[in-house]
């Protein structure tokens, strides 16, 4: 039975354990790709410490900064957390970290892993977007019906364009009543050549 095993003591006394987890939090937040390499046991213990700290960073107040600094003891880590990381994870309601197992260590056969911030792994984010575009049977039927719907819409658009063009042409053609009246002047009549009178006999 695993009575009184809620906390993994990691073979250390509390002061040593708390200092180690604080340093690991700082390393995770300050690393360029937001990822550190450690054992699975330490990563699981670290996740319980770092996730509440990241949640506190969503509210940028003096009090929350003091509480985070109390845990991390690093001004650089607090600045990075509140300025950059909190902006990137603002929409996520929890689960900021991911543990990826990488096999066992050669010396003591300890199980090793990466622990990283979820929103900083661009490859995983791309894969999720690609997987989200997968089809179901229902969407397939909709896609099959789509060309007919598109054809109808294009026909409607073409009719609407024809009507608009006809209206434009009508507007351009001016009604004869609106044209200015021009008085026609009589052209000078050409002199008519008189026929020679026949001499009466």
Structure overview:
This is Large ribosomal subunit protein bL17. Belongs to the bacterial ribosomal protein bL17 family. Pfam families: Ribosomal_L17 (PF01196). Part of the 50S ribosomal subunit. Contacts protein L32. Keywords: Ribonucleoprotein, Ribosomal protein. The protein is elongated and about 150 Å long. The protein has a domain of 111 residues: 50s Ribosomal Protein L17, Chain: A, CATH 3.90.1030. The chain is built from 6 helices and 3 strands; from the N terminus they run αβαααββαα. It has a 3-stranded antiparallel beta sheet, with helices on one face. Helix 3 packs across helix 4. The mean pLDDT is 84. It is 53% helix and 10% strand. A hairpin with a 6-residue loop joins strand 2 and strand 3. With 201 residues, it is mainly alpha-helical. The longest helix has 36 residues.
């Amino acid at each position: 039975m695993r009575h009184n095993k809620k906390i993994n003591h990691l073979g250390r006394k509390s002061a040593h354990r708390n200092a180690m987890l604080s340093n690991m939090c700082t390393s995770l937040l300050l690393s360029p790709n937001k990822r550190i390499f450690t054992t699975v046991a330490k990563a699981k213990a670290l996740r319980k410490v770092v996730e509440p700290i990241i949640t506190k960073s969503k509210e940028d107040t003096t009090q929350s900064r003091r509480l985070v600094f109390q845990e991390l003891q690093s001004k650089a880590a607090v600045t990075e957390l509140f300025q950059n990381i909190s902006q990137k994870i603002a929409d996520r309601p929890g689960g900021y970290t991911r543990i990826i197992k990488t096999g066992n260590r050669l010396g003591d056969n300890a199980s090793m892993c990466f622990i990283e911030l979820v929103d900083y792994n661009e490859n995983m984010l791309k894969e999720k977007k690609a997987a989200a575009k997968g089809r179901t049977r229902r969407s397939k039927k909709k896609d099959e019906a789509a060309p007919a719907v598109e054809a109808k819409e294009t026909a409607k658009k073409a009719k609407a364009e024809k009507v608009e063009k006809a209206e434009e042409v009508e507007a351009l053609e001016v009604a004869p009543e609106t044209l200015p009246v021009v008085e026609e002047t009589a052209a000078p009549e050409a002199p008519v050549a008189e026929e020679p009178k026949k001499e009466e006999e």
